[in-house]
Write a structure and sequence with these properties.
By secondary structure, the chain is of the alpha/beta class. The chain has a single domain, classed as Rossmann fold, CATH 3.40.50. The protein is built from 7 helices and 15 strands. The strands form 3 sheets. The chain has an 11-stranded mixed β-sheet with strand order 2-12-13-14-11-10-9-7-8-6-5, sandwiched between helices. Helix 5 links the parallel strand 9 and strand 10. The longest helix has 16 residues. The chain is globular.
């Protein structure tokens, strides 16, 4: 937009004087200027077929609360924990290549105070061409909608320039605050360079290396540019819950003290009870995180999905993933998590499809009108990898990492 204050109104005498100067110049000649289910999930084995789901158009409306929401695992019990998906691959839909990648920044290095939440966000209305939203192709070719603002510089942690930090491993994990974890570093890790950090929380009843082997971040761009942290709940059989929340601050402090972390780019994702945990952290520890990706969630006692009563420490970008036909935690729980973050971030009701993730196996949309730099994404998928559509879907690693990479 033109800033008209740069062109002040001239007085009559000023205009007259200016005309005289022009006449003088003409006379002398002038030259021209030159973005719980616990128990083990059972993947489809070819003998079972998922219920048919009509294929929505690209401009479909995202489901309102009350529709089935996916989680990442399957089991007959009320808790949830998935087995490995058949494969972690990109979405089936074609990905654009005609537009160059654009960086989508965040406004400032300091997180703003948490604004008061407005009325609960109603179910979104989808629009394929909302004003001001231009999908941005990522390095992998699919597009995520950019966030406005200016991307902040990296904020190096105390662990920068620290030599030979302990990584642990799935067979010999490290321990902090009664919880095991281990760390994977990007190739060519440079202790003087700040890296994004990703915490991935596994589902109930699964081994500590479930996320490393099945979440997909060891098979996409995250492995080359991010520090990946794989924690384990204190009680694997119970999964992640309210009793684990106090463990995250010591874990975070340990990671930023031992490794060169960009503190402006810390992300948390999880599935089933791990998704519940990532969602809790997105409020209770939002001052430490830039974005969260909770998948296959349910309510957790003491952490109600009520934006008007929870006292979040800041805001985060949220990517909420849930199975349309989740038979483990129910179809209603994903929309509750979605609406919680939509209300926290003051989103509107209109959504736009996320390019590259519009088929029914992913079905991702982005809310419009959210607070600057804190969008909310909603993926109500029908990925048939798991019986009951309770699990971490095949598209999730690529889609979430593309969004994280834009922040």
């Amino acid at each position: 937009m033109t800033n008209w204050n740069r062109f002040p109104v001239k007085t009559a005498s000023q205009l007259s004087a200016g005309a005289g100067v022009l006449v003088a110049l003409a006379a002398t000649s002038c030259s021209p200027a030159s973005h719980d289910y616990e128990g083990v999930e059972t993947p489809l084995d070819g003998t079972a077929t998922p219920s048919a789901v009509p294929t929505p158009s690209v401009t479909q409306t995202a489901a309102a609360p009350g529709l089935t929401s996916p989680t990442g695992q399957s089991s007959a019990s009320a808790s949830h924990a998935p087995s490995a998906p058949a494969s972690v691959a990109g979405p089936a839909s074609a990905k654009p290549s005609e537009s160059p990648a654009v960086t989508s920044p965040v406004a400032s290095t300091a997180k703003p105070p948490m604004p008061s939440a407005s009325a609960s966000a109603p179910a979104p209305t989808s629009s394929s061409s909302a004003a001001g939203t231009t999908p941005v192709p990522s390095a992998s070719g699919s597009a995520v909608a950019p966030t406005p603002g200016g991307k902040p510089p990296a904020e190096p942690s105390a662990g920068c320039n620290k030599a030979n930090p302990s990584l642990g491993s799935s067979g010999s994990p490290l321990t902090v605050s009664g919880h095991q974890y281990y760390v994977k570093l990007p190739g060519g890790y440079d202790p003087s360079k700040p890296y994004p950090v990703l915490f991935m929380f596994n589902p109930t009843g699964n081994p500590i290396d479930w996320a490393e082997k099945n979440a997909g971040y060891e098979k996409n761009g995250a492995k080359d540019v991010a520090i990946r942290v794989y924690p384990h709940p204190a009680n694997s059989g119970n999964g992640w819950g309210a009793g684990d929340v106090s463990f995250f601050a010591p874990l975070y402090d340990k990671i930023v003290a031992d490794f060169c972390v960009d503190k402006n780019r810390a992300f948390a994702a999880g599935e089933s009870s791990g998704g519940d945990f990532a969602s809790i952290l997105g409020c209770e520890h939002a001052d430490k995180l830039r974005a969260v990706a909770p998948c296959a969630t349910k309510n957790v006692g003491g952490y109600a999905l009520d934006a008007s009563s929870r006292k979040c420490t800041a805001q985060v970008t949220a990517i909420v993933i849930h199975g349309l036909n989740d038979s483990v935690v129910g179809p209603e729980n994903g929309p509750k998590t979605r609406d919680f973050y939509a209300k926290l971030n003051h989103c509107g009701t209109t959504t736009t499809p996320v390019m590259g993730y519009t088929d029914t196996k992913s079905n991702c949309v982005k809310y419009e009108g959210c607070d600057a730099d804190y969008p909310v994404y909603w993926c109500q998928h029908t990925d048939p990898t798991y019986m009951g559509q309770h699990g971490w879907p095949a598209f999730a690693a690529n889609m979430t990492w593309e969004v994280f990479s834009e922040l």
